């Protein structure tokens, strides 16, 4: 039986994280606004620098989902940096590799991101967005209490296809 865990990704795991993110962008082009080519342009040094710097907390992190020692999922989270956005946190880049789905790692990643944001005084809501039609992600977000507040038509173009984006929020003070 493998052991599942969620923890912040350390700088020395930059290569594994970059590879996981590239796999996500390549295999799930409808799920992320970043294209594979854009991901490719962010080199390993930048990932390392971010993990050791701005993503090392206390108000931003990249969480990793691990099956035993293997990185199989990720979620980024940051608190608003501008004076008037300090009460908001955003989750980005939620991804669990297909072979590790359905084990509760997506839920564990998002729960941990929300729990960490709850610890920060003054953060009142966590926000995220999802491509319309991504039922697995939507079910997960709604199950954890996120509610829809908006829809952007034609938010993204993938090849010839246009996709809407749904916006969701979880109030922490409700
Ligand atoms: C969305 C995603 C992160 C879910 O990860 P996961 O580890 O499989 O999710 P979990 O096993 O923790 O499931 C949690 C909940 O999500 C929902 N869910 C997960 N997969 C589902 C599916 N295929 N269909 C319907 N609901 C699903 C269920 O409500 C589940 O709750 P339950 O366990 O009480 O039934 C994963 O499918 C993924 O990476 N998809 C591709 C990338 C993506 O879409 N990212 C989101 C970008 S906004």
Provide a quick synopsis of the model.
With 174 residues, the protein is of the alpha+beta class.
How much of the residues is beta strand, in percent? 35-45%
Helix content: 25-40%
| CATH architectural type | 3-Layer(aba) Sandwich
Shape: globular
**Ligand names:** coenzyme A
Order of helix and strand elements from N to C terminus: EHHHEEEHEHEE
- Rg, nearest Å: 16 Å
CATH superfamily: Gcn5-related N-acetyltransferase (GNAT)
From the N-terminal CA to the C-terminal CA, the straight-line distance is 38 Å
Tell me how many strands there are.
Answer: 7
The CATH topology turns out to be Aminopeptidase
The helix count comes to 5
Strand order of the largest sheet: 1-2-3-4-5-7-6
> How would you classify the helix and strand content by structural class?
alpha+beta
Number of domains: 1
Low-confidence stretches: none
Q: How would you state the average pLDDT, rounded?
A: 97
């Amino acid at each position: 039986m493998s052991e599942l865990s969620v923890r912040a990704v350390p700088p020395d795991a930059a290569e594994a994280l970059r590879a996981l993110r590239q796999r996500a962008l390549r295999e799930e082009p409808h799920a992320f606004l970043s294209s594979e080519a854009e991901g490719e342009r962010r080199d390993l040094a930048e990932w390392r620098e971010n993990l050791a710097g701005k993503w090392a907390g206390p108000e931003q992190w990249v969480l990793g989902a691990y099956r035993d020692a293997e990185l199989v999922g990720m979620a980024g989270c940051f608190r608003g940096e501008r004076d008037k956005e300090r009460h908001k946190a955003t989750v980005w880049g939620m991804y669990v590799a297909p072979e590790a789905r359905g084990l509760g790692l997506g839920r564990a990643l998002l729960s941990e991101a929300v729990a960490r944001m709850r610890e920060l005084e003054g953060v009142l809501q966590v926000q995220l967005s999802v491509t319309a039609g991504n039922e697995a992600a939507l079910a997960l977000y709604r199950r954890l209490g996120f509610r829809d507040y908006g829809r952007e038509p034609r938010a993204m173009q993938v090849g010839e296809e246009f996709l809407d984006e749904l916006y969701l929020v979880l109030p922490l003070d409700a």
